[in-house]
Amino acid sequence: QVQLQESGPGLVKPSETLSLTCAVSDYFITSGYYWGWVRQPPGKGLEWIGSIYHSRTTFYNPSLKSRVTILVDVSQNQFSLKLNSVGAADTAVYYCARLGGSIVGGSYFDHWGQGILVTVSS
Amino acid sequence: QSALTQPPSASGSPGQSVTISCTGSSSDIGAYNYVSWYQQYPGKAPELLIYEVNKRPSGVSDRFSGSKSANTASLTVSRLRAEDEADYYCSSYAGSYDLIFGGGTKLTVL
Asked: Residue B62's pLDDT band (boundaries 50, 70, 90)?
């Protein structure tokens, strides 16, 4: 059973860069599937941020694309998220997840991390 | 890229059936059979209930079923139980490698 665990700072200052890592265990990232990030502002709905394959192919939410970078480190079996120029609207619980599906990029999230709350505040 | 539309709330009594709708457009739900549904308890990560419109992952109760008609997808919870009280989110592939979610529906078991 694949497991995912997010880690990173819980507090980021406005205009700085949010950086998170997702460690994957009990499954090798290089074995397949896309891996992605989803966020959820407090009391609100879910928003897909972007996804990556072990070959480093990436897909991003068009509304966040200019500020997002997702990277993969196969040697550490983990992938990461960087979101720059953050503001209060980026305060959210950030989840990493594995994507399933028969289409390129995946179409659903079948395994999720527990989530990490990141607050943007000075 | 617009979010899918879900009713903010739904409710039903134990033993009854409840259906939650998810309305999109001809560019997402209407164009692809890639609708998924998630259940989320407070403070917990979402869990996959339905994928590709009507498929259930191993371990998900057959009380949960999905369907689609034109630009609207639906999740039906049959034989309602107290443990079904949670938030439910729909999602759809929207083309160009884009994934969108609905705003969520809070299901209350009366």
From this structure: very high
The pLDDT assigned to B1 comes to 59
| Residue A46 to chain B, least CA–CA distance (Å) | 6
Q: Tell me the mean pLDDT in the region B53-62.
A: 96
Report chain A's mean pLDDT, rounded to a whole number.
Answer: 95
Give the span between the Cα atoms of B32 and A4, in whole angstroms.
28
User: B52-64 burial, b if ≥16 CB within 10 A, otherwise e?
Assistant: bbbebeeebeeeb
Contact A101 B47 (CB under 8 A): no
Contact B27, B70 (CB under 8 A): no
pLDDT digits (tens, 9 = 90+) for A4-37: 999 999 999 999 999 999 999 999 999 889 999 9
Amino acid A4 reads L
Q: Could you say which of B34, B45, B101 has the minimum Cβ distance to residue A112?
A: B45
Whether the CB of A26 is below 8 Å from some CB of chain B: the reply is no
Verify whether the Cβ–Cβ distance A61 to B38 is below 8 Å: no
Q: What is the pLDDT of residue A106?
A: 87
Residue pairs spanning A and B at CB distance below 8 A: 71
Looking at the complex, does the CB of residue B11 fall below 8 Å from at least one CB of chain A? Answer: no
Q: What's the full length of chain A, in residues?
A: 122
Structure tokens at B8: 């903010």
